[in-house]
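Put briefly, the fold is written as integer tokens. The lines below illustrate.
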Amino acid sequence: MVKRGIWKGRDYVPTSEDIFQNQQEQVEKYDNWKNMNSKQLEEAVEDDLDLEDDEFMKEYRDSRMAELKDKANQYKFPHGMIDITKQEYEWHVNNMPADTLGVILMYQDYVPESKFLREILEQIAVNHKTRKFMKIVATKCVENFQDVDVPCLLFYKNGQLYNQIAGSKCRTIFGGLKMNYATVEYVLAKELNFIEKEFEEDPRDSLKTFNAFIHKKKAFLGKDEDQSGSDGEDDREYMNNQMFRYHHKTK
């Protein structure tokens, strides 16, 4: 508009690209808040005054605070992974706090992957105290339990078995003989939904790259590839339905 020779510029109207860019910045900002505790959230608001008038931020912060409070009130198991007996099995399963997740490892230490998994789960249990980790030697729980079926993981909630994994499938999914803390924690979080933990990438990818390198090297040298058979065994039925549902007698 021109008035008395003075040009009045039009009000700025953001383009679709400007709007998209702003939305991207907000998404990145909110994503960063996901890993903040209550104190860090308060500091974020103090550092960015614009957030005080951000309605979405207020709702998000209230929701996040409620989530953190809920986690703080969750029952904690302070003693890490515990040993249980056949006679105690049912009691431990049925007496967990409501909606608490628990896992029982049936193992044999003379089976390498089984021993590795036990040792790693003992470490993980220390860092994930809202989950109940239990262990028992397989043959002390079920007589004549086959070695090929260990390690065996049984997942419980509210006294009910809701998931299980055993034998070669269990050994393979965690990384076989090369399993480590990161690979086991990743599978428990992302594939078995047993613990809560964020990951940027699957730590097992590095194992696949390493294994591919070893196989190529052996082929180049004219040697047979590793045929230990540990990860290539067929899955077997390691328990009947009575064991899965825990209808068998433990006394």
